[in-house]
Amino acid sequence: MIEEKKDLLVLGIESSCDETAASVVRGGREVLSNVISSQIALHTLYGGVVPELASRKHIENIDTVLRQALREADVTLDQIDAIAVTYGPGLVGALLVGVAEAKAIAFAADKPLVGVNHIEGHVCANLIAHPELEPPFLCLIVSGGHTHLAYMKDYGQFEILGRTRDDAAGEAFDKVARAIGLGYPGGPKIEKAAREGNPHAYEFPRGKVDGSAYDFSFSGMKSAVLNELNRAEMKGETVVQADVAASFQKAVTDVLVTHAMSAVKDLGEKRLVLAGGVASNGALRAALDDACRKSGVTLYCPPPILCTDNAAMIAAAGYYRYLGGQRDGWDLNAIPNLALG
User: Fold this and answer.
1) Which residues pair with 30 in a beta bridge?
2) What distance in Å separates the CA atoms of residue 316 and residue 10, rounded to the nearest whole number?
3) Contact 27, 5 (CB under 8 A)
4) N or C: which end of the chain has fewer CB within 10 A?
5) What is the CA angle 165-171-176, rounded to 5?
């Protein structure tokens, strides 16, 4: 059992994709600052994240973001106990900016360095939002690059029950949004369009993986949408953008909820944690909440600001890694395909 240190200050750094972020968290749960510099406007021009541009923007923004995080937390670097940084998974160039910055600060200030898995960080966002939450618990992690059903046995210890075999849910949202002319970022735009649409206008397939009840597959749904658009175009039929968005969102949500609740039932769990960027999707949250209430299960979700990429979740994960004895050396490197668990 980890002995908590409520006054321990961790400076978190996150740069895995297109947000440059820094945060100071006390005791693994109390956010003193959480600064995020988003690049959405830049990448919207190109219809998606351009890795080289993301890396350059991280270099431009990271010092400013770090200074602001320390200033808003009203602490100095001398008062920080450890530096936590995302070292994977993510875009390798973007990750390298954060890792290099963290190593430089840790070396110059003589502070311990702790590398954090980005996906683990998403789960730990719930520790901030729900101070009473302690492992073990079941978690559904849904983001732009990852979809996992995992069991968090203890801090930093995960057993993967299921994962996507192809596209992640968020990736599928982005691709479908582009196909129906909504643009980037796909998730929020599909959710907005879906509010005006009929979720039963199209019955897109609910992907299953033979021999694995908990694994996901979203490429078939994406292909079904593209096929429907092509069919309508060849026949000169009008496609209602909102109906496609609503039907696709429902198909994805149905699969996520079904898999999660199957695991809840099979494992006899009474708590389910939702995490990741797609966890901010209102339709998913509502569907999971309804399913959990009917099953007598407590659902934990972070607020939207902690669902998307941020450094507070990295600092929280780093806090528990630090208490568990993890210390990384100057050879810490970016691992773009770093696996959870």
Assistant:
1) 26
2) 8
3) yes
4) N
5) 115
Cα 336 to Cα 18: distance, rounded to the nearest angstrom: 14
**Which tokens sit at 232?**
């309508």
What's the rounded Cα separation, in Å, for the pair 184 and 169?
Answer: 15
| Domain 9-129+306-323 grouped into CATH 3.30.420.40 | yes
CA–CA distances in Å: residue 196 to residues 203, 225, 282 = 17, 18, 14
Contacts 24+ apart (CB under 8 A), 99-107: 99/332, 99/333, 99/334, 101/13, 101/15, 101/62, 101/63, 101/66, 102/13, 102/332, 103/330, 103/332, 105/11, 105/66, 105/77, 107/330
Residue 28's pLDDT is 97
Domains of the chain: which residue ranges? Answer: 9-129+306-323, 137-302
- Fold match, 9-129+306-323 / 137-302: yes
Structure token pair of residue 54: 């993301």
Whether residue 123 contacts residue 139, with contact meaning beta carbons closer than 8 Å, is answered with: yes
Amino acid 1: pLDDT:
59
Reading the block at residue 123, the tokens are: 């789960």
pLDDT, residue 67, reads 98
Class for the domain spanning 137-302: alpha beta
Phi-psi group of 305: left, alpha or beta (phi > 0 → left; psi -120 to 50 → alpha; rest → beta): alpha
How confident is the model at residue 114, as a pLDDT?
98
Below-50 pLDDT ranges, the chain: none
Give the residue among 51, 107, 106 at the shortest CA–CA distance from 84: 106
pLDDT in tens, 73-131: 999 999 999 999 999 999 999 999 999 999 999 999 999 999 999 999 999 999 999 99
